[in-house]
Prior knowledge:
This protein has 429 residues and is mostly helical. The chain is 65% helix and 1% strand. Strands 1-2 form a two-stranded antiparallel sheet.
Amino acid sequence: MDAAAPSLSPSRAAGFARGVWPLLAAAGFGLAMQFWVGPAAGPFPTTVMMQVGIAIILAVSLNIVNGFTGQFSIGHAGFMAVGGYVAATCTFYGGMIQWESPGRYGGFLGLGEWLMVAGSLLGGGFAAGLGYVVGLPSLRLRGDYLAIVTLGFGEIVRVLLQRTGKQLFVKADLGTDDFKVWPPPLGGAQGFKELPTYTNMFWVWLFAAITIFAAYRIKTSSTGRAFLSIREDEIAARAMGIDIAKYKVRAFVVAAFFAGVAGGLYGHSGVNMAPGDAGFQRSFEFVIMVVLGGMGSISGVTLAAIVLGALPELLRNPNALGAAWPYALGAVVLGYAASKLLRKRWMTTLGTFLLVGGSVALGLAIFGKIGVWMKADLSQYRMVLYSLLLILVMIFRPKGLFGVHEVWDFFRSREATPPPKLEAGGMTP
Length: 429
């Protein structure tokens, strides 16, 4: 009797490890950011890094719709606001009912933080449901027409939040006539105030890492290949048997879920949530990150979110940037030499990154030196410089920083293959 053929499917242990290790890695990264990077950087840089992490979640999730499937959504902030308000309702009124006070309860990984996480996941679920509703028009609309639909969704969310009832701050008010199920007591045009500050570096970067891992797994899965085929040629994808309707709606649902989770983290980061957070301007910020990073590039969008999230804060004191010009000039020279003289592809790519990054840093340093020479405060013009940098990047990189590629695609070490030689007998290698 022949021996049983070996199974081609991975063992349960291997499958479990493959599914769990990204979560463990994300948790380890979040702990490192919480207990090492945050204390070393200081309070203000920590706040900036938390906002950057939230921006990464929003930009990478929007990339699933705009980058992977080639649709055009400009209502992503609406999903963020829905998730944020749902999570805020859970923590504020839930804390008021459970602990008699809506303030912060418990320390790191305490009950209050877990309530925030549960509320954020619930907010992500609500946002995903709305993503399903918003994704349905994508079956018949594309391009600018779909953008108008998503823009309308964001404005509907903003107006509905403005029409909510006044916020209640005492538990006894929940049983009086001041409490109404509709409109819910979410603060109206003044916004949802005095939320407990539960968001920290651990939760932000944990969910940022999970979002990046999830986007990568989606991109390399059969669902991701279906997304990319729809982006490249919808007619050809339909001819090959791909269910266009199912995958378009699925992209909206997944993106909306992560946007809702990001909204929950944003609402508990020490800011006052307001209906304006669902407006067009916030949505357009995330669209800029996707376009600048590259439509469909997870690493490019992540890098763009980091740069665009940190750059406005760096430009608050541009005169201090002038002292960095020697380092920026060194990066430019080293990057130019590596990109022109070295043959290995990964070295050339690294040199190109150094050249581009050093050029931007050198421009900022020159800008700071001008401010010192003129004895003028150029921080008032920081958004002008910010906009000029965006214009220059899009002029020289119209497809974004990485295009449709990932950063690891450029670092594959391989020598250039010489072209084949044509001899009398035919082509020879």
